[in-house]
Amino acid sequence: MDRALGDGLPDLPPLFGPVFALREGGDALARAVALAPEHGAGCFVWVRAYARVEAAVVLEPEQPLAAARPALLAAAAAMADALAALGPPQAEIALRWPATLVVNRGVVGAARLAAPPGAAETAVPAWLAVGVEVRRALPPGVEPGTDPGRTALEEEGFDEADTAELTAAWARHLMTGLNEWQERGFARLAGRYLGWLERDPAQAGAARRGLDSATGDLVLQRPDGALTRRSLRAAVAEGVA
């Protein structure tokens, strides 16, 4: 069951609302999708839980789906910004293409995106929903280091900020990023996102990295001038984000 109340959530940007709080075990993105047709842009859903940060917001883009899909990258960069602001200064925060959140080389979560079923790439969707999920604590009985590729915020020194603070910080950074994208152009979003993007082995030797403003694809230019492209649409479809 959810409630149209903040339930302890710090103030959100004024354009976000109504705010729905879910109980432990709720799926914020799924609930945002269900609420999108009725409440439209700004509808915000979060999960009141100790062990994880989970939230989602409904957007109403003005671009076709292909050009609006980089909202996923904005959501991921916003969470990286929030973790950097509220975490220990020595924490190494990064994004793994396209929207996986990494702290000290261990995966802690990811951003997600949903669109109306059957939405055409060249049509403006009625809505989009973006969300984040981040582990604050390991599951009971799981010893730290059991899976070196995965971690939780508590294991990496994030002792001060609670779930509500991290959720609200994500919302504020997301609003900032979306406003910059709208008012100053796609290059602002690209710069913010690429500043967090880690270099994986597939990018070894790449001289330059960029994002295609029409699709959000990652474009790599190697020293010899050859270009390679990593599709954002395909990554979302495959559930990589």
| Run of helices and strands | EEHEEHHEEEEHHEEEH
Helix content range of the residues, please? 25-40%
Q: Distance between termini?
A: 27 Å
User: Can you give the mean pLDDT?
Assistant: 92
The helix-and-strand class reads alpha+beta
Q: What portion of the residues fall into strands of 2 or more residues? A: 15-25%
Count of DSSP strands: 11
Give a short account of the largest sheet: 8 strands, mixed
How large, in whole angstroms, is the Cα Rg? 17 Å
- Indicate the low-confidence ranges by residue numbers: 1-5
Shape: globular
How many DSSP helices?
A: 6
Strand arrangement within the widest β-sheet reads 1-2-3-4-8-7-6-5
Describe this structure in words.
This protein is α+β, with helices and mostly antiparallel strands. It has six helices and eleven strands. It has helices at 28-39, 65-68, 71-86, 163-184, 186-196, 232-237, and strands at residues 2-3, 19-22, 44-47, 52-59, 93-96, 100-103, 106-114, 128-135, 208-211, 218-221, 227-230. The strands form two sheets. The chain has an eight-stranded mixed beta sheet with strand order 1-2-3-4-8-7-6-5, with helices on both faces. A three-stranded antiparallel beta sheet has the order 9-10-11. Helix 3 packs across helix 4 (163-184), helix 3 crosses helix 5 (186-196) and helix 4 (163-184) crosses helix 5 (186-196). The model is unreliable at 1-5 (pLDDT under 50).
Please sum up the structure shown.
The protein has 241 residues and is an alpha+beta fold.
Strand-helix topology:
Blueprint: E1 2-3, E2 19-22, H1 28-39, E3 44-47, E4 52-59, H2 65-68, H3 71-86, E5 93-96, E6 100-103, E7 106-114, E8 128-135, H4 163-184, H5 186-196, E9 208-211, E10 218-221, E11 227-230, H6 232-237
Helix pairs in contact: 3-4, 3-5, 4-5
